Amino acid sequence: MYGSSRRMANDKKKAPKGTHRMPSGELMTGSTHTKDSKPVKKSTNKKTTIKLGGKPVEIEQGALRKALKMKKSDKFTKTELDRLKKVKTDTEFVFKGNKFMMTPKLKKQVNLGSTLMGLKKK
Question: Where are the domains of the chain?
């Protein structure tokens, strides 16, 4: 039977809670298929573990760049990050022509980015 081994391989993959897998192998929202079911997008963000102060810290790559609407090819400078560190929480600021609100999470991301840029590579 054509394609039967493919279907059997997809049946072995379990769908996460609150989702279901179509016969084609596509992952969709909802525990069963309805007219409102939509495909589930795969996460493209990668997590990396780094050591800070001897302790492992897990971070999401590109989170600050995404939060500040930067292109993947754009690079941060230490000066830019130091300027962003001075912005107080719950105040608006402009970065590369876009307006943003300095949230506590964004503040932590900027501080971490600045710290990582200041570390010397061995």
Answer: 1-42, 47-118
Q: Tokens 């800070």 map to which residue?
A: 52
DSSP sequence for 57-93 = EEEETTHHHHHTT--TT----HHHHHHHHTSPTT-EE
Question: CA 74 to CA 97: how far, in whole Å?
Answer: 14
The answer to whether 59 touches 48, Cβ cutoff 8 Å, is yes
CA dist., res. 52 & res. 86, Å (int): 22
Amino acid at 78: K
Instruction: Indicate left, alpha or beta for 3 from its phi (over 0: left) and psi (-120 to 50: alpha).
Output: left
State the pTM of this model.
Answer: 0.58
Q: Are 32 and 20 in contact (CB under 8 A)?
A: yes
Digitized pLDDT (tens) for each residue of the chain, 122 residues in all:
455 555 545 445 677 788 888 888 888 888 888 888 888 887 666 888 888 788 888 888 888 998 999 888 888 899 999 999 999 999 999 999 999 999 999 999 999 889 888 876 55
